[in-house]
Every structure is written in structure tokens, then in C-alpha cells.
Amino acid sequence: MATQLFHKPLKTDEDRIDWIQLARSENVGPLTFHRLISRFGCPKDALEALPELAAKGGLKRKLKIALRSEIEAEIEATEAFGAHIVLFDDPDYPPLLRHIDSAPALITVKGKLDLLHTPLFAIVGARNASAMGKKMAHTLASELGTLGWVISSGLARGIDGAAHKGSLKSGTIAVLAGGINDIYPQENESLYHQIAEVGALIAESPFGTQPQATLFPRRNRIVSGISRCVLVVEAALKSGSLITTKYALEQGRDVFAIPGHPLDPRARGCNQLIKNGAVLVESIEDISNEISPSINMNLKESPCEYREFPPSPCLDKTRHVVNENLSTFPISVDELIRQCQLSASDVWVVLLEMEIAGRLERLPGGKVSLKEEWKNL
Fold this sequence. Notes:
With 377 residues, the chain is an alpha/beta fold. It contains 14 helices and twelve strands. The chain folds into three domains: 1-80, no CATH class; 109-288, Rossmann fold, CATH 3.40.50.450; 316-374, Winged helix-like DNA-binding domain superfamily/Winged helix DNA-binding domain (Arc Repressor Mutant, subunit A), CATH 1.10.10. It has a nine-stranded mixed sheet with strand order 1-2-6-5-4-3-7-8-9, sandwiched between helices. Strands 10-12-11 form a three-stranded antiparallel sheet. The protein is globular, with a radius of gyration of 21 Å.
């Protein structure tokens, strides 16, 4: 069952603008967004509460809340571009993506929306891919298409591009790091336009955003988040492809990898994945013997699905204890609650305040840490 947030239905265009405005405001990441909605019931009330929450969390300056005029301009530019803003609650939102820990509050989509509801198989790999690696990605993408899979990837050069090209006829989805209108890399401009015509493009970043280093891991979690499986064709030990598989494993996705020569740096990441339990792939049969597009996933529940008990009237003690127990070293929220020996609801409220104030870092696996610049405060 898809995650349901506990909030009032969005009935008007104004409600939708409130939703986008909240998501685009400073320090409101996906997890924080969902907790704000769950606590306050609607984006309008959450927006009104932001300044007070930030102040209680320790922010000394005024929080930057997205301007309504900016949101209206984004909606207008997106629609003029032929794309759609899809909110978490909308029927067009990718169903598997709803279940990941950091499900985007909204995405922008250009192309065929119906592809978001098909069985998706991600293919990722090295940008500096070998000729054989690109051929393998192209061939497997095409063969997976004949079996009923739609291919997802990140539109990068190398393996990503080859996978998209191999699945243009059967269906492909490209997830972008920047805005929906930003073509990166430029060498894939023709491929970008082909995918927009016969497949679908997805972006989490606002219209007009240029890719930055911090945006690529966020993109990678969506590549795996919309997909049932991830196949790695070539990857170095420290690569974006292994970040994608890390997200995939946390999200409960099946991971496949193609082995390579141990002296090739582009094979070491794949070989390590296989050692750690990924399915070894030499041909399409290795995949089809493991999974088919007709198999339903057993999805874990998302942390977005919960009701909170009302916090205590005075949280001064909780703020002190939470600050005392937090450091720059990551700790799971469950462990933090145990260490603090306080009400879980109270701890969550204080963490919410701290994140909106920009003091808290959220990490994969439900962990949090104090940001480096706040450690001595």
C-alpha cells in the first residue's frame, strides 16, 4: 500500500502552491517536509510555523521562506516548457518512490507520465565506460525491454547513455540532477530530446537549476527509488554508481552486477558488489531467472507514514538533552531517543526545529548528526 500522509486534502490551486512553497523553503528537506505536514496538517499552517521553529532550533537570522511569486513563476515556466509538477499525493507520482525514506515532496516530469507506473529496471555505471561495457548496457537494456521492463538511469555519459539508447523503443526514464530544462551533459542533448519525446524525464530540483555536485547523490536515490532493481555494468570502488546501489539496498531493491577483470578499476566496484551478494550477470537469462516485471515487490513502510503524539508544553529540557547527546558523529534517531530517555515525540520536535535552523544533518539509514559549524555551540 502506498504511503499516505495525514493531512487535509489539497483542494485548490492555492493549496498546491502552499505545498511547493514549503518544499522550496530553506532547510526543508524531504523528511522534514513530511514531518511538517504530518504535524501541522496542511502546508499553509506549516509555512506559518517555520519562523518560530527555526528560532527555537537556534537560528539567529530570518529563515528564507520561498516567495509565493517565485513558486508561481516556477509553475508557469514548467507548464510553458511542456512539463508537469507532480506532488507526492498526486495519482501520477511514482508508486515505489513513495516508500523510500526521503521521498521527494514533488517532482517535475516531462514526457509520458504513464511510464512512471510501469515496472522499472535501473541500469547505471561508469561515465568513462569501455566500449564493451557500453555495448553490454545497450544490449541488456534492449533485451529487458522485450521482457516488459522500462529502463531508468541518470542520463550521464557512458553506461547511462548506452542504457537509455538501448531502451528508447521499449521505454526509458532519465532522472536529472538539475532542473527539468537543464541538459547535462551537453553531449547527450539529442538523447535528452529523444527521451522527452518517447520516454520521460524526471527532476527534483526547481526549474532552471544547474547541476551541482551535491545534487547527483539526490538524483541517484530517485533512480533506485522509482525502480524495482538496479544493474551495475561498470563502476570504480568510489563512484556514483555504488552510491546508487547503496540507496537501492536501503530501499529493499534487488541489485545485479556484471563482473569484470580484477585489474580494470572500472570492474572493482561490480566485483565487490558480487562478493557482497549482488546477482552476477553475464546474460539476460541471469536476470530473467531471478525476477520478472510481473512480480510484485514487498515494500517496507516509509517513515513518512505515522501520527505523532502532541509534544510536551515545555521542551527546554528536551532541547538541552538532545543537544548534549548529538555530535558530528552520525547516530540513529532510535538510538538517540534511547540515549536521551525522553518522549520520542518530544525528541522528534526538537530535531525538526534543529533541522529547520540548519543545525542538523540527515544521513541515509535514518541517522542524524550535528553540522560541523555548530559543534561548539
